[in-house]
């Protein structure tokens, strides 16, 4: 089905994410996006922290730390991929994918005039 409908051989890919990436490449989604390698890629990869989770019924639950069966009542499952929802949020809330060649920050760059930036900060105690 994927081979006939999208000309993508699923046996050539190791994951659903790699199939989606191939589809995006074929459809031109990354047109104008700079591919990063080496130090810039390693630096930006460090910014990818966290994620989203959902509890039963999408409601808040409170577990007391002194409860004997605290861990028995929590099922930590990745039943559904949240990557699609992250992609929708990226497009709708954050304005899309950053385009063009990245620039190294200097004091002359006004951060309010750029589409996005990655910086490393040190949090002092």
Structure in a nutshell:
The protein has helices spanning 2-6, 16-27, 38-45, 83-92. It is mostly helical and 125 residues long.
Structural class by helix and strand composition: mainly alpha
Major sheet description = none
| SS summary, helix count | 4
**How large a portion of the residues is in β-strands, by DSSP E?**
under 5%
Shape: extended
Radius of gyration: 20 Å
Query: H/E series, N to C?
Result: HHHH
Distance between the termini: 56 Å
Spans of at least 5 consecutive residues with low confidence? none
Mean pLDDT, as a whole number?
75
**Total strand count, please?**
0
Question: Helicity, in percent?
Answer: 25-40%
Describe this protein's structure.
This protein is mainly α. 28% of the residues lie in helices and 0% in strands. The chain contains 4 helices and no strands. The radius of gyration is 20 Å and the shape is extended.
Draw up the topology in text.
Layout: H1 2-6, H2 16-27, H3 38-45, H4 83-92
């Amino acid at each position: 089905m994927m081979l006939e409908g999208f000309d993508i051989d699923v046996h050539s890919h190791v994951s659903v994410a790699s199939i989606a990436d191939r589809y995006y490449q074929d459809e031109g989604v990354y047109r104008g996006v700079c591919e990063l390698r080496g130090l810039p890629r390693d630096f930006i990869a460090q910014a990818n922290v966290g994620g989203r989770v959902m509890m039963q019924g999408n409601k808040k639950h409170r577990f007391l730390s002194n409860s004997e069966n605290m861990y028995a009542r929590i099922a930590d499952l990745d039943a559904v991929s949240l990557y699609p929802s992250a992609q929708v949020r990226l497009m709708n809330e954050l304005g899309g994918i950053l385009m063009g060649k990245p620039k190294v920050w200097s004091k002359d760059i006004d951060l309010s005039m750029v589409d996005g930036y990655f910086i490393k900060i040190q949090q002092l105690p």
